[in-house]
Structures are given as structure tokens and as C-alpha cells.
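Two folds, back to back.
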Amino acid sequence: MNKTDIVGNTIAFVKDKLENAEGGHDWFHIERVYKNAMLIAQNEVCDVTVVKVGALLHDIADSKFNDGDESVGPKVARTFLESENVDVAIIDHVVKIIENISYKGGNFEKAFTSIELNIVQDADRLDALGAIGIARTFNYGGFKNRTLYDPKIAPNTKMTKEEYKNSEAPTLNHFYEKLLLLQDKMNTQSGKQIAKERHRYMEGFLSQFYAEWEGEK
């Protein structure tokens, strides 16, 4: 199978699979991550096919929507790619990307590393930053029926992986528990540059939020 077939068939598969997904983890999220990955990949020496397919399949079965089971996504991706007769080396690499891309509270070491993983991970993290990141955060908070903000509940930036997965904290806490920490966790130079601007935008949003919350403007 040629590379165009792999990418085209994967796009069709993902669109179908995520047709009814939550708004922050739907096909449009995948498409944005794909575009981010292509932008970053221009400045890196990498296997572009692995980056493309990895970006497209990175959230094919997010554990948040599968009772916390992190094995579902890799299994779904492997089964699909095997059915498309994709090279074993590509399949194994893409599965490793899916297994290691997640934030998981930020307090863990990746069991695998590659420039392709670095690119896709940066691309995914960029979609959690800036205007889109803000929109996705509150969309998911609404999906989970969480409080917008509670001054009495302080953010916890030292959560374990399990605490992070099971957190029911107000939506605004997520900015401090993940989003504002991403700028310093980017892997590539391109990712770092884009993250810096989006980080600054979020800081401005938070300043405005608190001012409005206190009735100052």
C-alpha cells in the first residue's frame, strides 16, 4: 500500500469512528492536531508518514471516554492498521506514539521516545493552548458538568496519574494543573515558539476572568 492510501484511509476511518465524539475530542480536534504536526514536521528530520498516521490516530479511543482504559486506543489503531496491511514497523511506531502521547498529570516518564512522538505530542499539546485550548477546556468542563470556578478549591499541580484522571475540580483549575505547564514541556523548537504565544493569550484570558469575577470591569 502506498503512503497516500494509508493517510486517506486513516482519515476516513477516524472521521467515522469519532462521528459522535465530545466536541473537544472530535474529528476537528484530530484535524487541527494533524495540521499542527505538519507545520512542526517541516522543521524536523522525521518519517512524515508515521507523523501523519500518528496524529490522525492519537485520540482514536481516548481513555477519558473508555472508563480510563488506556489500552483501547492502541488496540483499535493496531487492528485498523493491520487490516490496511500497513508495514509492521509503522504500526509499532504509531502504537507507541498513542501509548506515550498523553499528559497523565505530567508526572511520569515516557517509556518510548522518537522525533515523531515529539512532533505529534507537541501538536496535540498546542491544541490545548490559546483560544482553542480555552474553548476545549470549558467545553469538556460543561460535558462533565463541572463548576466554572470555586475560589475555595485550589489547583493541585502535584497530582499522581490516577488523581489527575479522577479529578472533578472546577474547570478553571485545569489551567494551572495542565495548560499553563505545557509551554515548558514542549519538545520541538517550533512547538515551543507557537506555545509561547498561546500561553501568553491564556494568561490574558485568566486576568480578564478574575477581574470580571470580582466585578472590577
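---
second:
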Amino acid sequence: MTATDPALTALSQGWCALSLLHGRIEAHIERALQARHELSVREYSLLDVLSRQHDGDGGHLQMKQVADAVVLSQSATTRLVTRLEDRGLLERYLCPTDRRGIYTNVTEAGLKLLQEARPTNDAALREALDAAAQNPELAPLVRAVETLKAPLPA
């Protein structure tokens, strides 16, 4: 089925178009990050999320928070963290105030790779959006994405 299949409701058509746009963008970024930095989109996203942590109260994310931020299950997030930890890009440590909590930090090597990969990610995102804007079904979604701002932390 395509996003314009008459058997689909308007809501389903919109969801199909959004899913198509997401898939195309993610695949394009994935190819660029893999080719230039040997990083997957998920690995890049995890490094990016974790790099935004700060020291002090509430400054570190627990694994469940990390899983929510990168939209993966906790088990998939743990496997992803382990892969990046094995590459020396992340490190895990126990929370000093709650020994049950495990936090994850980006290492210097991880921050360096993220800094190198960020322009690749941004350029690939721009290319994917520009290509999608040529498709009449996707153009309205591209315009919507281009006007969105990141949500403010709660």
C-alpha cells in the first residue's frame, strides 16, 4: 500500500507518509554515517543524547531515560551501550547515591567522534529533506519538520 491508496483513511495516509519520510531520512543518514564514521544512526543518537548530560543534580541519565531518549527498548539500549563501550566511546558507572542506578558517560574519544560526525549527520539530513521535498506527498511534512523546534526540557 502507498500513502495515497484509497483504501486507507486520511489518518492512515498521513501516518504512512510520515513513516515513509522517516524511513528515507534515517536510511540516508545511516549510509552517510556508516561510510564516513563507522557509526549507525542509533549509535550517533546515543552519543548525541549522552553528550548533552551535565554534572550536578539531575545531570546524568539512567539507562531507562537513555532508552526513552533514543527510542529503543532497555535491552536494545544496553546492547548499544555495550557496543559503544567496547569501542571506547562510552563508559558506565554506578550512581554514587543509589548503587542500583547505572549511568553512562561519553568518553573523550566518543565526544571527538561525535564532533566529527555531526556535520555529516546534518548534511545528510538536509540532503534527505531536500530530496523528500520533491515528492508532493512528503513536501508538507518536510515543511512541518523544518519549522519544528526541539521541545524544552520539563
